[in-house]
Design goal:
The protein is α/β, with parallel strands linked by helices. Helices cover 43% and strands 13% of the residues. It has 15 helices and eight strands. Strands 1-2-3-4-5-6-7-8 form an eight-stranded mixed sheet, sandwiched between helices. Helix 6 crosses helix 7, helix 11 crosses helix 15 and helix 12 crosses helix 15.
């Protein structure tokens, strides 16, 4: 992304039209905590990225700055680079929303970006580091609709009423899933104004959604990208062909958009996914489909209960002190009633069995 800004940052969108790298950048921008900086959906106002950077710098250097967290360590440098570029500096940010509700198991954030070609990009944030955010994602295994998807569709309808011109929607990880869902479920008049939907290494959907009239109406406008070693993008069904792109990281780290390789106006294509990615895809697909929807729900709820008892609230805790957290989780497991322990053992055994049956995928010709 930073290379791209060095190459194309001096060209506005009239001189160099919107391309997939721009969608990646604006999807990443949605991860920044911009509360108190970007006007909300009910405010009849907007702020340029250049001005947002100045306010952001003031806040992050004050005691209040402790609240300005982001999921990726590079995010503060990204918004500063955007603010100083001709391409993005005068783009207008508005409609920022950031919701977190443990009772509803909801983690949702989005914002709108007016570009200097008089079109708008609606960016949906992906999953943050909270356990609630990750549980909401996993709930897709058994729920037809998760709270963030409903919020995403309502948000698009609401913001479209104040947006003039054409609309693009997109996001990274769960954000790309929300973009597709919102484009499929929004009002027909709004849907007609959508020119492109960008899904960047995003989980898919259950089959009934992919057969819906709303999805089929926008299917030909969806651009799905996954890195070679994609894991998240292999979760559930996608309903359209994905473009495989190159990353300069390995394994799970390829999920980070900062690792995606770019040209001057596009993402660098790869021939196909890695054997490891196909192995994970086949294993997870077979594993999930081997259990009923009700059984999946019971497993996820049991697993979440154990994390709650262990007082684990974020992925960051796991990363910083995985050994301590693992000890707390195993200790909590001993305090869980036997039916839940048996359920977890059975499901995990199913995962290992599925992996064993798909081992040959790892040795397929690259």
């Amino acid at each position: 992304m930073f290379d791209y800004l060095a190459w194309r940052g001096d060209l506005d969108f009239n001189a160099s039209p919107f391309n997939p790298v721009d969608s990646v950048i604006l999807s990443q921008l949605s991860y920044l905590t911009l509360d108190g900086i970007v006007p909300g959906p009910d405010d009849n106002d907007a702020v340029s990225i250049a001005l947002a950077v100045r306010v952001y710098n003031e806040k992050i250097n004050s005691p209040e700055g402790l609240k300005l967290t982001s999921t990726f360590k590079e995010d503060p440098d990204l918004i500063r680079a955007l603010g100083s570029s001709k391409r993005f500096g005068d783009c207008q940010l508005f409609g920022y929303v950031n919701k977190f509700d443990t009772e509803r198991e909801l983690q949702f954030s989005a914002l709108c970006v007016y570009k200097n070609d008089y079109s708008c990009f609606v960016a949906y944030r992906g999953t943050d580091t909270s356990i609630i955010g990750w549980k909401e994602d996993i709930n897709m295994c058994f729920k037809d609709v998760i709270p963030s998807q409903s919020e995403a569709a309502d948000y698009l309808d609401k913001m479209a009423a104040v947006i003039a011109g054409s609309i693009r929607v997109g996001g990274h990880s769960k954000g790309g899933n929300l973009a597709i869902y919102a484009a499929s479920k929004c009002g027909k008049k709004v849907q007609q104004r959508i020119t492109d939907v960008y899904s960047n290494d995003s989980p898919g959907f259950k089959n009934n959604f992919l057969k819906s009239a709303g999805f089929l109406a926008v299917k030909d406008r969806i651009h799905s990208y996954i890195p070679q070693a994609s894991v998240v993008g292999m979760f559930l069904e996608r309903g359209n062909e994905c473009t495989v792109i190159k990353s300069n990281e390995k394994g799970l780290m390829q999920h980070s958009l900062y690792s995606w390789e770019v040209t001057r106006n596009d993402l660098v294509r790869a021939e196909k996914s890695t054997a490891g990615s196909r192995f994970i895809n086949n294993t997870l697909r077979e594993w999930i489909e081997s259990f009923s929807v009700e059984y999946r729900e019971q497993f996820i709820e049991a697993l979440y209960h154990i994390f709650s008892v262990a007082d684990v609230n974020s992925i960051t805790e796991l990363e910083k002190s995985w050994f301590t957290v693992a000890g707390k989780v195993f200790k909590s497991l001993n305090n869980v009633e036997e039916p839940k322990r048996k359920l977890i053992r059975n499901v995990m055994k199913g995962l290992f069995d599925s992996a064993r049956r798909n081992l040959e995928t790892l040795f397929e010709a690259k």
